[in-house]
Amino acid sequence: MGCTRSFTELYCEAAVTAFFALTTSLLWGLADFGGGLLTRRAPALTVVVASQAIAAAVLGVLVVATGGWSEAGPRLWFAVAAGLAGPVALLSFYKALALGPMGVVSPLATLSVAVPVGVGLVLGERPGTVQVAGIAVAVTGVVLAGGPQLRGAPVQRRTILLTLVAALGFGTVFALIAEASTTVTGLFLSLFVQRVTSVAAGGAALYASVRRGTPALPEGGRVRSSLPALGFVGLADVAANGTYAVAAQHGPVTVAAVLASLYPVVTALAARGFLSERLRAVQAAGAGLALVGTLLLATG
């Protein structure tokens, strides 16, 4: 049953936006949890390269099936740049998730929304009162999420630093991909080029790491049993990009961004349900503030 031009159409568009944006948060949250869990058993760089390679293969099929090659043009250089930034972000993020706790790491990574805000400032935009409040709340969340052990606890400091690097990388990727395409088929092609570049860059880094004596495979050398999980992580990430694009096309981008940015809740719930993670009160408060700050930035 279709929707006519009226209040009913607006309602339908809002419902589509909400559905696909919430689906995005679910997919991103589960992909983050799966990636972090895999990194506890295998080298983070191997997880990144393998999961992105599987995603690239699937995207290649989609590009051929949809005729996405016709969208090729100078804009694809943005996708290449995103492909170079992506492995750095994913590697940092998966390492941070492996160090944990996931309930702190995942919300802090949502600070990636600050990158588009920064781009807007460079282009002459000025943040509103809500955005300024979001920045203040988010920075406070970063400090509190470190917990009282932040000082004198090298692992905790490393976790926070890796997460912030990942957030910067993710925000850069989002901004670049937004410039790389203007259509759905163009988005498929851009994501494919991004993944191929990521696999090439990550593969080169993995080769160099192995040459230095770092093992590329988990203990025992078995990866076959992890292939389904690696495939899920890569495909969930790609699917999340697709559902987010659909959500943004059918309604206000701010609404789509707010709902899609709820993915840390999924990661935290998965970590609590499967890993029985427990957070100190100050860490939980900091993670919550970071998420609230991100929502304020997105809606500002």
Automatic annotation (TrEMBL):
InterPro entries according to UniProt: EamA_dom, EmrE-like
Signal peptide: none
UniProt entry keywords in alphabetical sequence: Membrane, Transmembrane, Transmembrane helix
Pfam family of the protein (one): EamA
Domain EamA: 18-145, 159-298
Membrane-spanning ranges: 14-33, 45-70, 76-97, 104-123, 129-147, 159-178, 253-274, 281-299
Gene Ontology cellular component list: membrane
PANTHER family membership: ACYL-MALONYL CONDENSING ENZYME-RELATED, SOLUTE CARRIER FAMILY 35 MEMBER G2-RELATED
Family: Belongs to the EamA transporter family.
Protein name as it appears in the record: Integral membrane protein
Organism in which the protein naturally occurs: Streptomyces collinus (strain DSM 40733 / Tue 365)
